[in-house]
Amino acid sequence: MRNSVINVIEMLIGSILIGLGLIYLMSQYKALSGLTDILTGKIIEDDKIIRQYSKSALDRVTHAELCASIMGYREYPIMVDDNLIPTDGQDYELYFSYIKTGVYKKENLYDDNRNIIMLKFTFIGT
Question: Which contacts of 58-63 are long-range, i.e. CB under 8 A and separated by 24 or more positions?
Fold first, then answer.
């Protein structure tokens, strides 16, 4: 009789712990869902992000976008029509002389471990 009472008490304690664990998981899920909704709303409000990633051809860039990538932070060396632009270079007049008005094809060059080592831009026309 004593063992059956102990078994019933253990089952009750176990079911209470499982119930509390499920309640905790549901509250964390609701908090995470709310945070995701807030962040998604903020991203949609910032239309610069949507404009940047809503292009149909991400491998095609204009000369203005190429100038912006040269002027911005360069993590990788850039090659424009066989002219190398180093990551720490500051001679923008020389770099902009490499650029023709028109559209460029953008390629990422990788090493053996699939890490980007260089950005290559090739002029394809106007």
Answer: 58/106, 59/105, 59/106, 59/107, 60/103, 60/104, 60/105, 60/106, 60/124, 61/103, 61/104, 61/106, 61/121, 62/102, 62/103, 62/104, 63/99, 63/100, 63/101, 63/102, 63/103, 63/104
Per-domain residue ranges of the chain? 2-48, 57-125
Q: Is the pLDDT of residue 2 over 80?
A: yes
pLDDT mean across residues, the chain: 84
Quote the tokens at residue 113. 């471990």
Overall pTM surpassing 0.70 (yes/no): no
Mean pLDDT of the region 40-51:
62
The residues near 90 (Cβ < 8 Å, ≥ 6 apart) are none
Q: At 106, give phi and psi (nearest 5°).
A: -105, 135
